[in-house]
Amino acid sequence: MVRAIDGGLAALAADVAVPTGHFDELFDERHTLRPAWADFSRHATHFSAEQLTRARARADRQIHDNGVTYNVYASSDGQARPWTLDVLPFIVTAGEWSALATGLRQRARLLNAVAADLYGRRDLLTERLLPPSLVLQHPGFLRACHAVQPVDGVFLHLVAFDLARGPDGEWVVLDTRTQAPSGAGYALENRATISRLFPEAFRALRVHPLGAFFHGLGRTLVDRAPVDAGDTPHVVLLTPGPYNETYFEHAYLAKQLGFSLVEGGDLTVRHDRVFLKTVAGLRPVHAILRRLDDDYCDPLELRPDSTLGVPGLLRAWRAGHVLVANAFGTGVLESRLLSSALPGICERLLGEPLGSRSLPVGDAVPLSHAPVWHEGAMTNRALGLRVFLATDGSGDYHVMPGGLARIAGDDGDTVSGQRGGGSKDTWILSDGDADLGSSVEHRLVVRESSGRDEGATPSRAAEHLFWLGRYAERSENCARLLRAVLERVTDTDALPRRLRPVVLATCLDQGLLNAEDPEDARALAEPTAGAIERALVDGLLETKQHYSLAFNVTQTVRVAGAARDRLSSDNSRLLNRLQQQLAATAGVRIGLDEALEIVDHAIITLVAVGGLEMAHMPRDHGWRFLSIGRHLERLSFIASTLDDVARVGVRSEPLLLEWLLELSDSLVSYRARFMRPPEWPHVVGMLLLDPHNPRSAVFQIAKLAKHVAMLPGAQDSELADLVADLDQLRLGTAASHDGQGDLFGRDLGAHVIDRSQRLAVQLSDALTLRYFSHIYDVARATV
């Protein structure tokens, strides 16, 4: 009996029964493991309940670290929900897949031919192969697309079919997705997670990799994009934005394919041509991979209240100046009534019988059940499979050798992303002669000639990166300030009563304390060690309190998610882990020791994030805006903190000066240079005027002047004056600084502090007006 193999899968599932009338994916009629599953069980080493539970935990951890989410509009809290992935793959044999893929390729060619006929000769209507009312009254039929000839005659560049296996084991097509099919990116991410859990089985079963499919899709869009001679094709992925339920996938695919991720407000149409609004000006767009349904794409000709689309986009597409994938008007192909007419249409248009079955309108099919590891035990769930096909640009289609297998939740046989449930990695086995190619699943891709270069940084992306730099720096400043206070609060010698007012003033100025909060107000009025500790610890995890550590980290993660396609995956993992740690203790009253542990972890994580930015990001305009955001925030923090200390008038206190140096991570450098207790002139010199200290104000000023001057158009705007002011301030301080931290002139420190604060505000406003503000203009088309 195969059931006895290693006591593994067969033993774990021995008592799991599939409901009567449903196909069992795991066992045959004799309750024997099907051959592919027997091979999987044999090669999946250490196959036990304990191993599967640990594998599930690793998969969940990777999903959380990678920030894989599926947003649910109807959820009560409106929060993104982590993607759910079962550890057991869904296995399809080579012979079964070959027959299925052949039928789906034919169906994709047929649907493309149907679209060409419906928006062209309309023979299907005149010959009554399709009832005119079925087409003309369907909301997906767009009269604005009549007589349009898309590039190469391709209406469907990417199409998906939702399949189910009936009780007889045969696959049937339930639904067709032709407007903006979703799920392919999730399938790729599933593969990257599950293949590493069972590497021996993955290799032994010769599972088809997915990389070639995505490479082919991206390559086709680049090669077929209509460009003038000598131009480089520029392809973008159009997304509704971060609040869309599948935004993770949009950013993931854009990053993998090397395409610019854009929203409707990032694009404009001029003279029937599409342009991307970049920080360097308008950049031509030649192809758009859209994840936006027809109705929302063009408010001039489709849904007028849409703020997600691009006015004039249909006109540019009709003129042949831009490839849109998929073509407009393909929503009509999703009609289930159309599916019932496909056999006759296939004979008419392709001259051959339809090779794939459709579910008759009104029927329901009992879904097959697949094994699922859930809460430490084997069970089974109803399963549906979404299969993806991409055009080869020459009239045929490539089938992704995999798919998005979706499983029902605890509520029954409903397979839907919006109703819970989960997903599986789909393993398509190859025969012995198949060339599997590269097994690297998520290191594609199509970066050459796709338009991602320094000049193609969208204004929206630049703004996201600018604020990512600011929020990340605020988070680190906040964490350092918390640590510097909380480590001293229990030691009256380290934080004597006379120094507490200036420390509290800094915390209040930086937003760690709120004068309107009763507990914070008590700490400010009577600064006992216990009151200070309790106020700061309680505010640490308060996400609704602006400038708290939790708030700033949340904003950092939010903005990083919006710029996900431009950041390294390690960057996302670090930030997601930090946010998860903060969320895990939210609402819990923690003590000083636990608070300091959280703060220490936050500092280490944020420093690592900054290091990744320096080590991995290309030095394009996007990186410059991120760096400018960081340097602006650091300059403001240094200047405002020194200003707080100077106003209180306790400059000669060594303990306070040591605290200042620790805030700026300059204490070790100071001790190494001066080898004596901190003194006000030396501390101010190091924190304000030392050009070699990466935490000094003048260092930030020099970096700001350098980066701003390199931005496109900076020399032709008020930014040039601000750069000159920055250089003047930098050179003026250098002339008054002897290199050892001494100041010549009592008022120099106050002048630098005041001028730095004002320049930081002016520069932030000027950058916003010059590079960011236009993306919020009312969308319009020009002729």
In short:
The protein is an alpha/beta fold. The strands form four sheets. Strands 3, 4, 5, 13, 14, 15, 16 and 17 form an eight-stranded mixed sheet that branches. A four-stranded parallel sheet has the order 7-6-11-12, with helices on one face. A four-stranded mixed sheet has the order 10-9-8-18.
What does this structure look like?
The protein is of the alpha/beta class. The protein folds into three domains: 339 residues, no CATH class; 161 residues, no CATH class; 154 residues, no CATH class. 45% of the residues lie in helices and 11% in strands. It is built from 26 helices and 18 strands. Strands 3, 4, 5, 13, 14, 15, 16 and 17 form an eight-stranded mixed beta sheet that branches. A hairpin with a 2-residue loop joins strand 8 and strand 9. It is globular.
Rg (C-alpha, Å): 30 Å
Low-confidence blocks of residues: 1-6, 73-78, 442-451, 739-745
* Helix vs. strand class: alpha/beta
Please describe the biggest sheet, giving its number of strands, its sense, and whether it closes into a barrel.
8 strands, mixed
What is the percent of helical residues? 40-55%
Count of DSSP strands: 18
How far is the N terminus from the C terminus? 75 Å
Question: Which key terms come to mind for this protein?
Answer:
eight-stranded mixed beta sheet; alpha/beta; disordered N terminus; four-stranded parallel beta sheet; 783 residues
